[in-house]
Amino acid sequence: MKGIKYLSVLFVGTLVYVLLSVTVGQNSFKSYKKMEEQKRIVSRQKAEIQNINTELSLELTALKSDKAVIAAYARKLDYVNDGEKLVKITGLKPYQTELYDTGSVVRHEEPEYISERFCKLSALIVAFLWLIILFFYDLNKGNISFKTQEKPMITGVPIYDLPQI
User: Fold this and answer.
1) pLDDT band at 95; cut points 50, 70, 90
2) pLDDT tens digits for 133-142?
3) Which of 24, 48, 98, 147 gives a 20 to 30 Å CA spacing to 158?
């Protein structure tokens, strides 16, 4: 029964380590949720950038090959075809070209957690304290004694320790 009691020291130490790791450690649920949120933000930003890239690729292809698009873009830049007359109107704002918003820079944020070393050290300290508590409990109950046991002695009659034949 003594062995099982002292085996509880390993159980308590392991329990403390697991609880600390799961709740506030590096691989805790809180850290996992934070990293999942960052993953969603990066995925959303990536999808937006891919959409912009697709639009720009289509626009580039059109500007390289479609004559009507090239002419329209040249007119935006104030170029004129042969035979066209230019009429300048004052007082109007110039046409703004479309600017693509590529979003903001997304930086990796390290989740807040307690180091693995701290979790292990805390578990060892708690297990050692539990061992001390059990030791003093057994000492108090008399299960452990530091007194040297005297050999039983019967007074008056000598006892000889002779080998049996």
Assistant:
1) low
2) 999 988 888 8
3) 147
